């Protein structure tokens, strides 16, 4: 096999694996709370990835018109995952996502922000008006209460 053909095949594999990674980077999970989805966000966050998260979420919601609430879980995002992300851009990206969802009639909820992450957004002096909870469990309990449902603990 020629050297050029090997390079071409490797480039095609890279494109293929990048597509797989991109698709796996935004899992959208139906919740036990009716009409609610959860989007766990883990790992490195870049502007492109955040735009991908927004696009995937909006496309999912447009295909599943019964969705009323979207919970974004940032618990697995560490400081090193957002180190290179400009916090002004991050606050603007979150605000944009929030606005897009609200325009679609969706209640966006954010959980699990790291304290340093919050400090940097506040220091950026960008007003971000979002509904937040410190954990997915707290948000889930709140949503279940609103639905007059409870989860019983099995011992």
Q: How many domains make up the 3D coordinates? A: 1
CATH topology: Transcription Regulator spoIIAA
Main β-sheet, spatial strand arrangement: 1-2-3-4-5
Structural class: alpha/beta
- Our Rg estimate from Cα atoms comes to 18 Å
Largest sheet: 5 strands, mixed
- Bin the helical content: 40-55%
CATH H-level superfamily title: STAS domain
- CATH secondary-structure class: Alpha Beta
Query: Cα distance, first to last residue?
Result: 62 Å
CATH A-level architecture: 2-Layer Sandwich
Can you give me a brief rundown of this structure?
The protein has six helices and five strands, in the order H-E-E-H-E-H-H-E-H-E-H. The protein is α/β, with parallel strands linked by helices and 155 residues long.
């Amino acid at each position: 096999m020629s050297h050029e053909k090997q390079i071409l095949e490797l480039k095609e594999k890279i494109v293929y694996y990048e597509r797989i990674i991109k698709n796996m980077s935004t899992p959208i999970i139906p919740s036990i709370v009716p009409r609610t989805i959860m989007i766990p966000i883990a790992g490195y966050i870049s502007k492109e990835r955040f735009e991908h998260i927004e696009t995937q979420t909006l496309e999912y919601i447009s295909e599943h018109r019964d969705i009323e609430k979207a919970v974004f879980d940032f618990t697995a995002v560490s400081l090193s995952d957002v180190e290179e992300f400009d916090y002004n851009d991050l606050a603007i990206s979150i605000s944009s996502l929030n606005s897009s969802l609200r325009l679609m009639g969706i209640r966006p909820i954010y959980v699990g922000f790291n304290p340093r992450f919050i400090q940097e957004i506040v220091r950026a002096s960008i007003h971000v008006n979002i509904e937040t909870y410190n954990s997915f469990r707290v948000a889930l309990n709140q949503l279940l209460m609103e639905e007059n449902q409870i989860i019983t603990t099995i011992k």
